[in-house]
Amino acid sequence: MPEKTLKKITEVFPAALVWLTFIVIITLSFARPLWAIYFILVFVVYWIVRLFYMMVWLVISWVRYLRDIKIDWLEKIKILPKDYREYYQVIEYPTCGEPYEVVARSFEALLKTNYPKDQMIVVLGGEERKGEQFLKVAKEIKEKFGSQFFKLLITVHELQPDELPGKGANVHYMEWEIKKLIDELNLPYEKVIVSSFDIETLPHRQYFSYLAYKYLTHPNPTHASYQPLILYNNNIWESNPIIRVVASATTFWLLTDLSRPEKLLTFSSHSMSFKMLFDVGFHDKTIVTEDSRICLQGLVQYDGKYEVVPMFVTLSMDTVYIGKFWQSLKNQYKQMRRWAWGVEHFPWMWQNFFSQKANKNIPLKKRIQYLWNQTEGMYSWAVAPLLILVIGRLPLFLASDEDKATAFFQNAPRMLENLMVIGMVGLITNSVMYTLMLPNRPQGYSWLNYIIMLAQWVVFPVTMIIFGSIPALDAQTRLMIGGRYKLGFWVTEKKT
Fold first, then answer.
1. Residue 26 belongs to what H/E stretch?
2. Which Pfam families match (predicted)?
3. Can you tell me the distance from the alpha carbon of 399 to that of 47, in angstroms, rounded to the nearest whole number?
4. Overall average pLDDT of the 180-190 stretch
5. Contacts (Cβ under 8 Å, ≥6 apart) of 469
6. Neighbour-count burial of 417, counting CB atoms closer than 10 A to its CB (0-12 exposed, 13-18 middle, 19+ buried)
């Protein structure tokens, strides 16, 4: 089969599978309502079992987080056989028009970390199309922070014809400039650890010490990415309840995967070896979701001998809240759609895992596992909330009088309600953990705000549809249609 045809088929497949599911269920709701109800009940039972399975991993990750956050990782790396002073930490901060206050806040957070600053190389990357504004910000940053790190590198990226406008292209350019600096300093690539951060990322004070420990104790550290726990705590108290629920749901999804490395891909801000970055040709400059693609690049480059190492330490980021209720909700939808555009990995994975040009040195089991994780994750994201909470009610209204007279039909609503009540256990667990992970309450906020923080979870089912299923379905359908409907990189608006 020609590569072009195969690529189009794999672009169509994810959305086609989702739409086929909806079409079949809706058709059965009219033609065979009882069949539809059987399917929906089986699907809901599967999801309840899956929920409790995920809750087990959530609790395991939570316990590991509480344990690791109390350890003095700087003291631990000081007694390792390898000398941590020989390793340098590079921190990438790509920007696209963010104000000085946002950038300065991130630099101040770096200074609060307990890792030696004379082993940090900080890279601030701007876009040529924001040149005047960026250079003004960069000048102020250099004046205030330039002498407080080993090196502060400023880069300005000019978009090239073969690049997609967005973070990936900017980071790709930054990494070529980092290579020039590292070569000038004669630093071994395997002794340079790179953290690719969004501009508003605020690391835990022990982040780089923890990262160094993971890196120095790993048997093959250049063949691994390092994924921390992402919190959206920077402006969590100011955000509205809907935004808070959506943001925290992302945290808990990541928390469940941190204890299951076989399902883990890098997400948002994360870290890796510069040696790996160089070997794979740096972050992809032609896609939107470069943050998760980079570990897949490593997987293909090293014949499957690559992994994502979980880090039970936090990075804190902003929610999309900018002070305007409706605009913030609009931004939240766009952010979720951009994350759901990770479906663009499916054609790439098929091409690199199973096509004639694929790397067959990767064990078949691992190739199938990664492709299954990608397919099942994207399918569930788009299907589950809509099917369980909306479409699943359709056959109950369309059944004939004869069907309604059966004992099964009369008990079906009660069975669904009971299953939903069981599912509330997970929601309650999330709400309690979420409250315990909140930053200190700012001045001007009363203790009553904690009650709001707990009560806001009642909107979770609605947010699963509006900011879960629908943007996922939107992204997958755009990939299926292609052309001008394909997504570009949308820059999240930042405001302090």
1. helix 3-31
2. Glyco_trans_2_3 (PF13632)
3. 24
4. 98
5. 381, 382, 383, 384, 385, 386
6. exposed
3-state secondary structure of 71: coil
Query: How many whole angstroms separate alpha carbon 80 and alpha carbon 18?
Result: 50
Place of tokens 């089969």: 1
* pLDDT (mean) for 350-359: 91
Which amino acid is located at 216 in the chain?
L
| Closest C-alpha among 290, 249, 306, 169 to residue 469 | 249
Residues contacting 191, CB < 8 A, separation 6+: 86, 87, 88
* Residue pLDDT, tens place only, 42-73: 888 888 888 888 888 989 999 999 999 999 99
Domain boundary assignment for the chain: 1-410+432-496
Threshold 0.90, pTM exceeds: yes
Is 70 exceeded by the pLDDT of residue 106? yes
d(CA 55, CA 27): 34
What CA–CA distance (Å, rounded) separates 454 from 428?
9
Gyration radius of the chain's alpha carbons: 24
Residue 451 has pLDDT above 90, yes or no: no
C-alpha–C-alpha distance, residues 58 and 186, integer Å: 43
**Which is nearest to 63 in space by CA: 229, 187, 198?**
229
What CATH code would you report for 1-410+432-496?
Answer: 3.90.550.10
Residues 6 or more apart in contact with residue 456 via CB below 8 angstroms: 241, 242, 244, 245
